[in-house]
Amino acid sequence: MTRVDVRKTYKLFIGGKFPRSESGRTWEPDGAQGTNVALGSRKDLRDAVAAARGALGGWAGKTAYNRGQILYRLAEVLETRKASLAEELRGSSRLSAAAALKQVELGVDLLTFWAGVPDKLQQLLGSQNEVSGPFFNFSTVEPTGVVGAVAPDAPALVGCLALLAPLLAGGNTVVLLTSEDNPLPGLALGELLAVSDVPGGVVNLLAGRRAELSPQFASHRDVDGLLLAGEPDPALGAAASDSVKRVRNVELTPAAWRRLDTLCTLHWARPFVELKTLWHPKAP
Amino acid sequence: MSETIDPAAPSTPAENHRPQLVFGERWVYDPAPQSSDHVQLAERYGLFIDGEFVAPRSRRYFATSNPANEQHLAEVGQAGPADVDAAVSAARAAQQDVWGPMSPRDRSRYLFRLARLIQERSRELACVESLDGGKPIRESRDVDLPLAAAHVFYHAGWADKLQLAFPGSKTSPKGVVGQVIPWNFPLLMATWKLAPALACGNTVVLKPAETTPLTALLLGQIIEQAELPPGVVNILTGDGRTGAALVSHPGLDKVAFTGSTGVGKQIQRTLAGSGVDLTLELGGKAAHLVFEDAALDQAVEGVVKGIFFNQGHVCCAGSRLLVQESIHDVFVDKLLRRMERIRVGDPMDKNTDMGAINSGAQLARIQELVQCGVDEGAVMHQSSCTLPEKGFWFRPTVFTGVAMSHRIARDEVFGPVLSVLTFRTPEEAVEKANNTAYGLSAGIWTDKGARILWLAERMRAGVVWNNTFNRFDPASPFGGFKESGFGREGGRQGLEAYLRFHDDPFTQG
User: Fold this and answer.
1) Domain total for chain A?
2) SS (H, E, C) B83-95
3) Which is nearest to B259 in space by CA: B279, B274, B229, B276?
4) Strand-pair partners of B62
5) Is the ipTM of this complex over 0.85?
6) A44 to each of A81, B241, B443, how far by Cα in Å?
7) Alpha-carbon dihedral of residues B494, B495, B497, B502, nearest 10 degrees?
8) Which of B100, B166, B224, B459 stands 20 to 30 A from A197 (CA)?
9) What is the CATH number of the domain that holds A111?
């Protein structure tokens, strides 16, 4: 007699909790037929932004060493669960078992890279500046704030992690819209985040329609930055200009999404940190 | 303003009752006019395109005048779309054929040459800056010109060291850059924009502000003198229409803008999704925090410098004074006395502290916001100084009793108008300081080192001056958080805006 398997309901991840969409809507994503996923609404996005704003002070205020440890903890948790996540990825992405496992391992590897970044950002991006006068002058970096991120359709898991990790390393909090084609692996990340010391609200995961939610990301005045997979969209950039958001697009070939060297450069973090320069006189 | 000691009032702070020296009319300053005999302005200036001054294809000119006396100075060209086309084409050709392929060492030497020429002609440039813009000659001479030359000198040295600046990254110039600059520091802003762009191998089309075109045109002459290859720098004078035509020109690879937040947003909107990179240095409403343990007399000087420097036409001006409640009365008293001593008048007088408002339009905006402050119930204090009859002038002004919701506490006045608010605790100071859409600069006055670092870390602003204010240096990155813009100017980090990193997977959206 075959066992009747237990199926998982895929829900959103907002403020450390797993709500269904407040809209009550669900959908069957193209890449995950047969699974009903909570279909995130604009209200869910606003709730997620509020959670991210609330979590910002605590996350940015942690020592960089601590943020690095938490990111490394996330890598550890992913490593120990890589078989199950790879299985989830394989089932929903029509990947071979080997390709799915490779993608999860790439995720672990890039998390490990970024786990080592937070306590080096000041030395990598900041400076002491030699000004012509009796002043001590130095520049430090700080998080931009709440960043909205829109993941590519594929790769479904690494596409999420590659956007998330540098933003978190820089001290930002994030609202991430997972792959529209296959949101399941991205949403499954919530289960890892919830048990890996990342405070609630630091990462918020939505599933839904890009066309419905992206304009809301762009026009929301409490979103400070926007990192969008795909080619630049003039309408989104125009809406973002109303609050002078920092907007970046990233479009990579499938091969480039598989290359750690491409995903692990400071260019991924730099647009979402702000440089602050301090002056103080020197006097006896 | 004379006061006497009143022993019957012990409950008010003793500071309020310190007698002050009152000289009346017995100690006035004699005029100390800066001679401008050696300044030879042409009657009419063309546009600087492809290495020469040419008549605008639009055939239109407009007048620029001295805001201190409304006297006509010269006519300059109003660049139209055909002029923008010509300038962008010249810049493209120069970038591809000459400036881009040139050895970095040669680019560096051209920039050193340019820096020296600015130094050599600095007195002439300072005079023209004050004549055309209304700022005191003391500031043009001692701040604008030395900093302008220093900026070019600093970046001359970067031109052949870009590989050292960003080790591990292969870079190339962005290409052709369109730059639009404001009227408050005309020549200084021109060099802030040009120097890093040129050092990184880009060519430029620069649009100076409508009311202050002259020093940029003299810079064009200096560029001729330095024998920079034609087309490397092109200078188009004109009004907002010229700026709009430039920033939306499809031949650009990058746009850099310094000016109002409103126009900055329009530019970001225009360029959205175009693939053209953008940096913005926009408005501000800086909080200037004074704690009870600060060196108060120094802090008064800092606050005065913070708001009255350059008539308050400074994007990073300390226009919101947040003073600890316990010292409010003492501090405001000192501040008002000091304000009364500010010498307002002829910008060409070497004793002048505060010159003319840059234009009639700007004066009208200041007047409107000040009227709003009065209407909303804040208490206005103004210097009793005598203002010249001709020209555009505004008295140094302080508002007390200001609430966070008042327009004078929220909107950028861009004039000599200070709003005074209070706080009790450091936490409240942070809360109030950051309660603005802007984030360009902040100032902090306290004697406690630990408190400075604690506060500075919490200021959401790109530049934080501690126990000083309005300091600038080419090595010190400058730029804003939030709606004060993005990108930095100055320092190693300022170079990033003008380089394409081959391993950068991002495009600006």
Assistant:
1) 1
2) HHHHHHHHHHHHH
3) B279
4) B76
5) yes
6) 28, 42, 39
7) -140
8) B459
9) 3.40.605.10
Q: Which domains does chain B have, with CATH numbers?
A: 44-282+483-501 (3.40.605.10), 284-474 (3.40.309.10)
Contact between chains at A233 and B461 (C-beta distance less than 8 A): no
Q: What is the pLDDT of residues B347-387, one digit of tens each?
A: 999 999 999 999 999 999 999 999 999 999 999 999 999 99
- A4 is a domain residue: no
Structure tokens at B272: 């959205």
Question: What residues contact residue A57 under an 8 Å CB cut-off, 6+ apart?
Answer: none
Residue A169 within a domain: yes
Asked if residue A18 is part of any domain, the answer here is no
Q: What's this model's pTM, rounded to 2 decimal places?
A: 0.95
Is A11 part of a structural domain of the chain?
no
3-state secondary structure labels for all residues of B20-38 = CCCCHHHCCCCCCECCCCC
Domain that holds residue A97: 26-281
SS3 content of chain A, % helix, strand, coil (to 5): 50, 20, 35
Inter-residue contact B300 to B331 (CB < 8 Å): yes
The shortest C-alpha distance from A158 to chain B (Å) reads 15
Q: Which residues of A touch B456 (CB under 8 A)?
A: 276, 278
B478 at A interface, C-beta within 8 A: yes
B225 touches chain A (CB under 8 A): no
pLDDT of residue B18: 66
Contact B468 A252 (CB under 8 A): no
- What is the amino acid identity at position B382? Q
